[in-house]
Design brief:
Layout (H helix, E strand, L loop, with lengths): L1 H22 L41 E2 L23 E4 L9 E7 L10 E6 L5 E11 L4 E11 L6 E10 L4 E8 L14 E5 L3 E6 L3 H4 L1 H19 L7 E6 L7 E3 L3 E4 L10 H17 L6 H12 L8 H11 L5 H6 L6 H19 L1 H8 L11 H12 L4 H13 L5 H24 L13 H7 L3 H4 L5 H19 L2 H21 L7 E3 L2 E5 L2
Parallel strand pairs: 8-15, 10-11, 11-13
Antiparallel strand pairs: 1-2, 2-3, 3-6, 4-5, 4-7, 5-6, 7-8, 9-10, 12-13, 14-15
């Protein structure tokens, strides 16, 4: 049975590769500048997003992640809730295989629904000598708050030999103990540019820019420096403020999330095979707005307005886009989300719909009463003394500044959008954009799990540079299946930008068919042998 599964998987990958080779030769015909007449637009492509927009996929194991299928019996504990007999998935970093010299990190993920409060995960290696690598408490991780124990850079392999190493994981107190067999490949087998790659930096007028040598960012460094200064100057002018200090920007040679994150440093994905699309200028400007907006403050800045302001000032989310006409297309498609729902659950709502609607709402408020009135409202939203969510706080501020409730604003905004002319071009663009990014996230959940925006592997960049670590972001899943599906996604992104919507639908249909076939044929690894009361596994 296992042999048949592997054979079927091989056939699937070969088929995907053949399809991807065809994709690379596609001539993407640009959409005419003037929108086509309604009768000339085909609104039923081969891949159509239904009202059930959010894709939910059970993550499949990758070469650097294994799921434990055994069900060890936890020891009794009088003070803690008993653990269910479910597997604890273990994700290892760097992605894409481990090599001698890596500083290995562990994510031990709690089973769905398990209460891990008060418990820890202990990780030990038994060769060449018994050694405790570390202990970590279970806690929320990432935007999703996934419960896991995270040991960052816990295992330094720089003085080890290539080969197999038994690594034990124990959930304490009262949890299972098991053994993973982890393979380290020879350092000499690393592919370029990694053997000589290191962190480097350059300072521009606005920013301190970090990149990894030998990557696309180093090749295009002059353009990236110019781009950073232009986008920072534009952001200053839009918000009538200056950054307190040079902005730190990290150009990453791998896809994380949708291509950009903002914290103390901005991280922007920059690589030729960027399967998440997004123009780097747009993504950078969006994150720069977040940084300066945060600096300007406000007691409570609801996520709906934080992201809406960034989209509005950038002129789009992942690309320049007509916000109001595209938001009107949401209404036409039946995808418009009530503002109260979006305010209290912004990041759990369908991603592209939420961002587009938020940007259009800010544009509407600015047009309605002026930029100064919007800024006074936006900076004067407060947490309510009697509790309540962000929708309630927005409601109170709207009543004070605009004299209308959130419900009244919702009705007014809907009426405004309903009065806009329906452009079939934007309807189809919105439909295929939502389908594209849902497919990107489905791919990440299945074959590049560390990239998914809700649980992205985001690290302390300053600590990485101090330790000289580049593998966590230079390396990524790169099997033939990854390459093939990413080629389909890259081509679909080009099709979206060219306005060739039927071709986009065809490409997304191919990608989703391949992902469906992969998900249905992938089996989790089975136990090889019992060991120390646990189970021994081999990462493949």
């Amino acid at each position: 049975m296992e042999r048949m599964r592997r054979l079927l998987m091989l056939l699937i990958i070969v088929s995907i590769l053949a399809l991807a080779c065809q994709v690379l030769t596609i001539d993407l015909v640009p959409n005419p500048e003037s929108p086509p007449a309604a009768e000339e637009v085909e609104l039923t492509p081969s891949f159509v997003v239904t009202d059930e927009i959010t894709v939910t996929v059970t993550p499949s194991p990758s070469p650097t992640a294994t799921t434990l299928s055994a069900s060890p019996t936890p020891s009794a504990t009088p003070t803690l809730e008993p653990l269910p007999a479910l597997p604890f998935p273990v994700h290892l970093h760097p992605d894409g295989g481990l090599y001698v010299g890596d500083q290995v990190s562990f994510e031990i993920i709690a089973p769905e629904g398990a209460n891990l409060n008060g418990r820890t995960a202990q990780v030990s290696v038994s060769q060449p000598d018994q050694k405790l690598l570390g202990t970590a408490e279970f806690a929320g991780f990432g935007i999703a708050g996934r419960t896991q124990a995270t040991l960052t850079w816990a295992w330094d392999t720089r003085n080890l030999e290539a080969g197999d190493y038994p690594v034990s994981v124990a959930i304490e107190p009262g949890g299972p103990t098991w053994t993973e067999t982890i393979s380290l490949q020879p350092e000499a087998s690393l592919l370029p540019p990694e053997p000589d790659a290191h962190w480097a930096s350059v300072e521009s007028e606005c920013c301190l820019i970090y990149y990894v040598t030998g990557t696309d960012a180093e090749r295009d460094l002059a353009r990236l420096v110019e781009m950073a200064d232009e986008q920072a100057q534009s952001t200053r002018q839009q918000l009538d403020a200056d950054f307190n200090e040079p902005v730190k920007i990290v150009f990453l040679p791998r896809v994380l999330g949708h291509g950009g994150f903002a914290s103390q440093e901005l991280s922007i994905s920059y690589l030729e095979r960027n399967y998440a699309g997004g123009d780097p200028e747009i993504v950078l400007h969006h994150e720069l707005v977040h940084m300066l907006d945060s600096q300007l403050g406000g007691e409570l800045r609801p996520s709906l307005l934080v992201e809406g302001l960034a989209v509005y000032l950038t002129g789009g989310h992942f690309k320049l886009e007509a916000l109001i006409p595209r938001a009107a297309a949401l209404l036409e498609l039946g995808w418009y989300l009530p503002l109260s729902q979006l305010a209290d659950g912004f990041y759990s709502s369908q991603h592209e719909i939420g961002y587009l609607e938020a940007g259009a709402l800010v544009a509407y408020l600015v047009d309605r009463g002026g930029r100064d009135a919007f800024d006074l409202f936006y900076r004067d939203i407060h947490n309510l003394e009697n509790g309540g969510g962000q929708a309630d706080a927005m409601n109170a501020a709207l009543l004070e500044h605009y004299g209308l409730s959130l419900e009244e604003l919702d009705g007014e905004f809907r009426e405004f959008l309903a009065g806009q002319p329906v452009n079939p071009r934007w309807v189809e663009d919105v439909r295929q954009s939502v389908g594209y990014y849902d497919t990107v996230r489905r791919y990440q959940q299945a074959l590049d799990s560390s990239a998914h925006y809700l649980t992205a592997w985001l690290l302390d960049f300053e600590a990485m540079r101090e330790r000289g670590i580049v593998a966590d972001y230079l390396r990524h899943p790169n099997e033939p299946g990854n390459q093939a599906i990413e080629a389909l996604l890259v081509a679909a992104d080009k099709g979206l930008k060219a306005g060739n919507y039927p071709e986009v639908g065809r490409l997304l249909g191919m990608a989703n068919a391949a992902l469906g076939a992969y998900e249905s044929t992938t089996a989790y690894p089975q136990a090889n042998s019992a060991s120390n009361g646990g189970v021994q596994y081999r990462l493949r």
